[in-house]
Backbone:
């Protein structure tokens, strides 16, 4: 069975401790992908000069944030990688000529462990992290996803982790209504993803007008384009909400049956 690719919003680091619709949705993914023999995670929080694979056998849980509840820093996600999956990722990138590197010291950043702790809490499925390439465009990340797509047929669940809206300067107390520009951009993403309008989506960040407000820097949307490319260019809406006022928690599946 060919697995889908996913775009999961990881939100603020405190998602595992929150009482929000996004946490309930992410926890509800437990058991949905029993065929997955490995997860390939692409997080907004790792950019490198070339696409880089984390190869530590047991990556540490990195608490790459500050100012949160002390309980959050005690959370651990003791998943392990897989040499077989790492080799498959490298072979897939080699086949299309995408430069790549290894990093044996890289741990799982919160873009990886926050959503996976909720969706795959048992840590039985190996998790391999692949970085974004720093400065890569939406189109380049889409092509990266296309290159990775064959892994779906081999039992690898490709998960892009970011946010549909990510403007930390516009944060508001949890539960606050999202501002109009945030809702407008999130709707633009949702409409074009579910409509399969890849050409329009790849105009980001030049379009739409709200793009630069929704994403002062583009990295939190780039994993969406990886998942989009890996899944064939049309997505199914899985969840839609906001956290902390201006963090878009909309999530999608690509390439599954709908």
Residues:
């Amino acid at each position: 069975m060919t697995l889908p690719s996913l775009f999961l919003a990881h939100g603020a680091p405190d998602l595992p401790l929150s009482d929000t619709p996004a946490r309930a949705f992410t926890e509800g993914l437990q058991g949905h992908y029993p065929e997955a023999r490995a997860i390939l995670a692409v997080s907004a929080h790792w950019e490198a000069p070339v696409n880089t694979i984390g190869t530590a056998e047991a990556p540490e849980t990195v608490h790459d944030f500050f100012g949160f509840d002390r309980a959050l820093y005690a959370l651990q996600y003791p998943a392990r990688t897989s040499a077989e999956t790492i080799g498959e990722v490298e072979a897939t990138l080699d086949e299309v000529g995408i430069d790549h590197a290894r990093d044996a010291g890289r741990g799982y950043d919160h873009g990886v462990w926050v959503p996976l702790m909720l969706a795959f809490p048992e840590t039985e499925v190996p998790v391999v992290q692949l970085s974004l390439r720093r400065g890569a465009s939406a189109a380049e990340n889409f092509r990266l996803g296309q290159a990775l797509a064959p892994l779906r047929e081999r039992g690898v669940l490709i998960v892009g982790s970011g946010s549909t809206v990510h403007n930390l300067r516009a944060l508001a107390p949890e539960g606050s209504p999202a501002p109009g520009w945030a809702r407008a951009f999130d709707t633009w993403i949702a409409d074009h993803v579910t409509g399969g309008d890849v050409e329009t989506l790849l105009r980001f960040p030049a379009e739409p007008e709200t793009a630069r407000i929704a994403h002062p820097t583009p990295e939190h949307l780039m994993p969406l384009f990886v998942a989009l490319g890996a899944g064939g260019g049309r997505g199914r809406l899985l969840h839609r909400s906001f956290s902390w006022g201006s963090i878009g928690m909309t999530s999608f599946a690509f390439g599954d049956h709908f």
